[in-house]
Amino acid sequence: MEFTTAGVVGAGVMGVGVAQNLAQTGHRVVLVDVSEEILDNARKELRSSLRAFAMFNRKAAVDPAEVFEKIEFTTDYELLAKADFVVENVTEEWAVKEKVYKELDRICRPEVVFAVNTSAISITRVGSVTSRPERVVGMHFMNPVPLKPMVEVIRGHHTTPETIDTARRFLAELGKECIVVEDVPGFVSNRVLMLTINEAVFLVQDGVAPPADVDRIFKTCFDHKMGPLETADLIGLDTILKSVEVLYESFNDSKYRPAPLLKKMVAAGLLGRKSGQGFHTYR
C-alpha cells in the first residue's frame, strides 16, 4: 500500500468520516484538531458511526475495535510529519485555512500531497500559501463519507497531472471514484446545491410552504432521496451559511445573498442534525 499513513486535519463531521473511511480500508490515520474536547466528541461520533455502519453493512465485516485502533487522535500537528497524504477538513474560513496550510507546509515532507476538503474556497488560493502549489488539490467529499462512492476533485491553477493521478490512486484505495473539475468558487456541486438550498430557505421565510412540504415536493416529484432543507440539516446550517457567503463574495452576484432566515437560525444555534434542531427536529 502506497499511502500507509494518512493525515486528517479537522475532527468535525467530515474529518471523522474521512478518518473512518481511511481506517476501514486499512490505513493508519493521524487525526488532528485543536482541543481535547473536540477530539473527545470525535471519538464519540466515530464509535456511533462505526456501530451504525456495522449494523447496516453486515457484508462489509467491519470490526469497530480494529478500525478505532488505527486512528491516532492528537492535538500535536508535528505528528503529521509521518503522513504520506493529508486531507484537510477545517472550517470554511480563509483565515483558519491559511494558518493551517502554513503549518502543514512546514511539517510535512515536500512530496506529500495536500487535499483540501472544501465546498467553496479556491484551491489555487490555498496552494499559494504553500511551497508546493502543484501538490495541492481539492477533494470535496460528500456526507456521510464512508457511504458515498464519488468525490468531486478540483484542479487548482498549479495542480499537476501527476497530483491528479495521485489523488485518483488515493481515492481508489478508499474504494471511491472521482470526477475532476476546474477551480471556480463552489465548483460544480455546491455552485448548484447552495443556490438551491438558499432559495428553499427563502421559500420558507416568505411563507410559501413549510419545510416539510418544500422537501416533500423534491422527494415525490423529482425522486430525490432528500429534500433541500433536509440536506441542509445534514450538512449543518453553519456550513451552508459560510459556503453561501463565500459564493456571494466571490461572484459579487446578488443571487447568492444569504437568506436572512438562514442567518437567524445559525445565530440561534439551530444548526441541523448536529444540534438536534434545524428545519426539522432530530431527537
Task: Please describe the structure with a list of short key phrases separated by commas or semicolons.
alpha/beta, Rossmann fold, 6-PGluconate_DH-like_C_sf, 8 strands, 11 helices, single chain, 2 domains, N-(1-d-carboxylethyl)-l-norvaline Dehydrogenase, domain 2, 283 residues, eight-stranded mixed sheet
Task: Explain what you see.
GO terms for molecular function: NAD+ binding; oxidoreductase activity, acting on the CH-OH group of donors, NAD or NADP as acceptor. InterPro entries: 3-OHacyl-CoA_DH, 3-OHacyl-CoA_DH_NAD-bd, 3HC_DH_C, 6-PGluconate_DH-like_C_sf, 6PGD_dom2, NAD(P)-bd_dom_sf. One of its GO terms (biological process) is fatty acid metabolic process. This is 3-hydroxybutyryl-CoA dehydrogenase. The protein is α/β, with parallel strands linked by helices. The protein folds into 2 domains: 178 residues, NAD(P)-binding Rossmann-like Domain (Rossmann fold), CATH 3.40.50; 86 residues, N-(1-d-carboxylethyl)-l-norvaline Dehydrogenase, domain 2 (Orthogonal Bundle), CATH 1.10.1040. The chain has 11 helices and 8 strands. An 8-stranded mixed sheet has the order 3-2-1-4-5-6-7-8.
